[in-house]
Amino acid sequence: MEMDKFLSDCTIIGNFKEVPVHLQSTINTFQYQCHALGIQVENDLSLNSDVNFPFKFISSDRRTQENLFSFWSDDPLRQGSESVIQAATGLMSVHGRSIGGIDALNAPYLSSASAVLTLLGCIATAIGHRRGLNSRGFQTSMVSAGLLCVGQYLAGATVNEYAENIPPGVHDHSQRPPFCSEDGVLFELETLSPEPWRRFWSALGISQEDMSKGWQSFLQRYAKATSYLPRTLISKISSSKFKDIELLASESGVAVCRQRTLLERSTDRDISILLERGPWQLRPEVINNEIYKDSSENILNQDTSNNFITDQSKPLSGLTVIESCRRIQGPIAGHLLALLGARVVRIEPPGGDPLRGMPPLAGDCSARFDALNHLKEVREIDIKTPAGRAEVLSLVSTADVFIHNWAPGKAKQLQLDHEHLKKVNPDIVYNYAGGWGILDNDVHYPGTDFTVQAYSGLASELSHNNKNNGGTLYTALDVLGGIISAQGTILGLFRKFFNNQGCRVDTSLLGSATLLTQPIIKSIREKNQKPEFQKGKIFKTLDGYIILEFSSSNELIPLLDELNLTVRDLEQSNIDEKFEKILKDKNVQEWLFIFEKHNIPCSQVIESLEELPKQPRFKENFQTSNYSRVTTPWRFK
After folding, report:
1. What 3-state DSSP class applies to 512?
2. Terminal Cα-to-Cα distance of the chain (whole angstroms)
3. Does position 434 have pLDDT exceeding 90, yes or no?
4. Within this chain, do residues 462 and 586 fall inside the same structural domain, yes or no?
5. Where does the sequence pass through the membrane (predicted)?
6. Of the candidates 322, 518, 320, 333, the residue with the CA atom closest to the CA atom of residue 434
7. Are 389 and 498 in the same domain?
8. 12 close to 42: Cβ distance less than 8 angstroms
9. 263 CB neighbour count, 10 Å cutoff
């Protein structure tokens, strides 16, 4: 079945012709995904979208949802923007740990994540309706997306004991990956084990002490979003030519991936497919069981036990997900499905996942690990043994979803690939959350966040006009990739409940990078002007920093009296200097009241993540345990 027909009997209705400027990137990505899935998009000018975006979703059983996307979760009528919400939710702070100070990710990151979560909510609600859920729709927000995206970092910063607060700019950004060779080539170096690392640096003459310090910092970059390497490592690389580094890396067993541009990425053989079909590869399976009864009949009367909804507020209640994933991408997917009500059974090796012990701890478990896994049941299974594989097959036989993010080819080697699993459960939704997607057999680097950032051109784009020299050490693709993987699972479940088909779903970090950069890649391929990312302006106040989003000084004319400025002042070349001086006279909250009153998108810039749960406007977004947990990004009505 063609991908563009996957949801062709569904419809989105919204005011797509009058989208507020700051919402445009989110709605563009939302429409792009709808187009890729074949969802019909209709325009309705009567749906007011001055600040937020109300819209309707009509599923193939003709049930209609009334949904709302906004910037803020507590007040849908408050103005916002991509960079304002990055500042408000601490994403700028996390990104700033490795780039020398607070700054925005130079991409519509939260806009893209919000679009994925919004469409995911539509499809999940439709599945819930099909299964007996009485919901009129849902509300979600960019703030909810932003807090979800920093959830594991927030856990580490708010744990009761030994909280880990890493200020933005704490480390010299010149002593972090990526590396730069003598001949000016930027590149990522990747290895998941210490021995190749030792061989590589030993061959370059680095001392055991500096090599060990470097490994510990390098290893922690996925958890801490910073990696402060000894100066000797940076100096040695910067005095070596790239071709020599590549040769040594090959001999040592480490991977070296040159940082490519989006221009280079735009010519890759998988790009046309990804741009047309979106970040998912969806392959429905036709099964021979009786077609589900029409939605006009109460599906709760059927004897298929896993159709039952036990919690009327959650659309996946009563469904079972088997998850065998490490690190971030796969666990986030499972976490989102659990937030939607699914029972998620997590398979871990005997003795448990080693990341459970990574400090800081919340009780006897890593706070960061717990943030993504606390809703899941755990089964310790050695999947390398026949008995372990038999146990996995037994779990899968009564489940609805199986998710893994093993290395390419491992599933087939273990005989736990889709072909084997559908023999015990023909309508299983099988989800592979991988690194390279279609290019799995062509790209020979580890499919990890920072390597994919470099290969995809995203790192180059994120560093554009920034003082850092490549990418972000915030795990941008792991997080977005996990959200997209959850969305792919929901698409598979839609097929299961509406078309009585199992489904294989493949998503990847490379597909996630492509979703994030697709507007620029399209402009390159079509030889159009490249869309520029607009950042808000950050100013120091009496007690902290504020971010303001305005494109012209004329937008400040209604505030002249409160700013003690004149129209002539706005025309002067030193207006920013005057503006900075004025803003230092009041504290952040006083200025927020003034700018919000005049509908200027603004926020306090969160510098330390421990400040987030103290924000009154975020009180519904957190649960307090022995650290602050981020709640569900959807509010079902």
Report:
1. helix
2. 34
3. yes
4. no
5. none
6. 333
7. yes
8. yes
9. 13
- Three-class SS of residue 244? helix
Q: Position of tokens 């509908």?
A: 599
Q: Are residues 519 and 400 in the same domain?
A: yes
Q: Are 355 and 369 in contact (CB under 8 A)?
A: yes
Are 516 and 547 found together in one domain?
A: no
Contact 125, 137 (CB under 8 A): yes
Residue with tokens 């003690």: 564
Q: Which of 525, 549, 568 lies at the terminal end of a domain, its last residue?
A: 525
Q: Verify that 282 and 252 share a domain, yes or no.
A: no
Strand (E) or helix (H) holding 480: helix 476-499
Closest C-alpha among 116, 113, 110 to residue 80: 110
Number of H-type helices and E-type strands within the chain: 26, 23
Task: Dump pLDDT digits (tens) for 245-280.
Answer: 999 999 999 999 999 999 999 999 999 999 999 999
| CB-neighbour burial class of residue 555 (10 A; exposed 0-12, middle 13-18, buried 19+) | middle
Residue 174 included in any domain? no
Give the pair of three-digit tokens for residue 121.
């909510």
Same domain, 201 and 328: no
Q: What is the CA radius of gyration of the chain?
A: 25
Lookup: tokens for 72: 């803020």
The answer to whether residues 29 and 101 belong to one domain is yes
In DSSP terms, 74 is beta-bridged to: none
What residues have CB less than 8 Å from 444, skipping those under 6 apart? Answer: 255
pLDDT beyond 90 at 447: yes
Helix (H) or strand (E) holding 424: helix 418-424
- Residue 388 has what DSSP assignment? H
Please indicate, yes or no, whether residues 82 and 42 belong to a single structural domain of this protein.
yes
Name which of 330, 489, 479, 511 is nearest 404 in CA terms.
330
Euclidean distance between CA atoms 401 and 502, whole angstroms: 9
Residue 249 CA to residue 205 CA, distance in Å, equals 14
CATH number of the structural domain spanning residue 69: 3.40.50.10540
Rounded Cα gap, residues 182 and 57, in angstroms: 55
CB 607 within 8 A of CB 167: yes
The beta-strand segments (E) located in 148-206 are 179-180, 186-190
Instruction: Point out the domain boundary residue: 466, 493, 525.
Output: 525
Q: What are phi and psi of 34, to 5 degrees?
A: -60, -45
Contact predicate 507/437, CB 8 Å: yes
Q: Is residue 115 part of a domain?
A: yes
d(CA 272, CA 522): 10
Q: Is the pLDDT of residue 454 over 50?
A: yes
Round to whole Å and give the CA distance between 32 and 277.
10
- Which CATH number does the domain housing residue 597 bear? 3.30.1540.10
With 0-12 CB in 10 A as exposed, 13-18 as middle and 19+ as buried, what is 475?
A: buried
Within a domain: 167: no
Measured distance CA(429)–CA(486) in Å, rounded: 12
Pairing of the two strands 343-348 and 377-380:
parallel
Q: Give me the domain span that covers residue 586.
A: 537-636
Q: Quick check: bond before 359 cis, omega within 30?
A: no
In angstroms, the CA 339 to CA 616 distance is 23
Q: How far is CA 629 from the centre of its chain?
A: 17
Please write the tens of the pLDDT for every residue from 83-100: 999 999 999 999 999 888
Considering its fold, how many domains does the chain have in total?
3
Tell me the per-residue pLDDT of 486-527, one tens digit each, with 9 for 90 and over. Answer: 999 999 999 999 999 899 999 999 999 999 999 999 999 999
Contact 7, 93 (CB under 8 A): no
